[in-house]
What does this fold into?
Amino acid sequence: MRYFLTPILLLYAWSIHAQSTFTYTVDNDFDAGQKFRANGSVDELYSLSDGGYFAAGSFQTMFTNPSSPFPYGGGMITANGGVHPDWEDGTVLTAIRELHEYQGGYIFSANFGQTILKMTYTGISWYVIFGEMWADYFRPSNAEYTNPYNVNWGWDVYIQEDEKVLIAGSIATDTLQPNVYRHLTRVLPDGSHDENFPVIEASPINPNTFISKIEKASNGYWYVSGNFEGINGHISPHIARLTPDFDVDPTFISPLYFEQTSSNLPTELIYLDNTDRIWMAGRQVKLDSNPDEIFHLVRILSDGEVDPDFIMGKVNSDLWDFGFQRPPAIHKVVQNDFGHYYVLGSFSHYNDTTQLCITAIDDEGNIQENYFGGNGATPNYYDPDDDTNFRRPRVSECVFLEDGGLLIGGAFSNFMGSEKYSIVKLNQGTVSTLDQDRLEGKMKLFPNPARDQITVEFTEPPGGNIETLQILDLSGRTVATYPWQGNLGNYDVSDLAEGLYIVEIVQEGRQISSNKIIVQH
It folds into this structure.
């Protein structure tokens, strides 16, 4: 998503930004309850004209949360998180990726990339339909090749201005050669195959080779990305550039190291910014110059060189050491109005700093602590009847709202200390940099380590209406809240388990100071 501000708005934005820094707090007036409590993720959020949202993803509630009105893959909610009146008995019953509006309906990849479907919204509810003109794309059995679009993997959809539809993946467009796949194809508006579209074939030729992402650059060129070593014989691992007519551009050569995986989250382009810089991410990203080192976020310039001014990102999930689950990863990058980038994924640390599935970085890659304060998503306890069923959390989606807030989608049961399941709304606030500077070194906290109680002292009164003192654990969960006791107060920590905690002072709904404390009994 890109934003363009007028000079007046830019001046206003700079003035506000110069005096204060943004921060976010949970909006508890928005509550989707347990409608999306599931072993799966809300990966896409789409705004409806009445202020509601359509949620899409891999979530499945039919077994662990059968009372949910959204059994699988999709659901409609109101602006405050309630069931949308237009949903009624609508069902999707398929995982959804990359939903796009098209000709009064919607096109999307489904069932984890094995299907491409067209869906229609009837005005009463959502239904998957199979039109005569729009053949459905599907992954056939070994013996069935009756459909002209047999999908091995169908990952991305891009609708051109002329309404022709690009489909990326691994697709057999010739029923006489069902095992010969094209990795980028184009469909005409009536649903038929565009016979004039050139052959785009990724290598090596095997079932795990596919294109997972299509993006158009400002000069009309195309970038394709995914699980491949090259395109049409041109070696350019994981990212290649095509001309406006879809010929391979041999002047662009990827700096990445090719390592194919059967994973459904390959090294891929997750963001093409407004200066055509390429953000590559995944479960692991390797550079050809040093393939032994693993990164999770790398930025490449439009000439194919690694951006030397960007601190490459590495993530881990050390707070949630669930060995039976997939490795940590980065899923998405989005940019706000002030040139900062929100990095989303499944991780507990970004560049060795606690950042719970979401972090904000500047253009050089430095973490902006003020946005989320190291807080975010915590493990997804998806089964209401069995708290031993849980998975590592993830944040997959971030939508910018008109009031400056954010709508977050993913797989979690708690976000920034509030019980929220897979969808949460955040309000935007500000922390004055003047306050931060003024309070620097003015707050004392002792003893540290503490056994039974801590004393908090301000050597100079902070001013304003301080409401509470809060203690958070490293997952971002609020474990204790106390009324403010003035500039010198004692607070009981005897009930806290031993460990490292964060002590926050909250003034008028915003954090104005924080310190770390160790509890040892």
Observations:
- DSSP finds three helices and 39 strands in the chain.
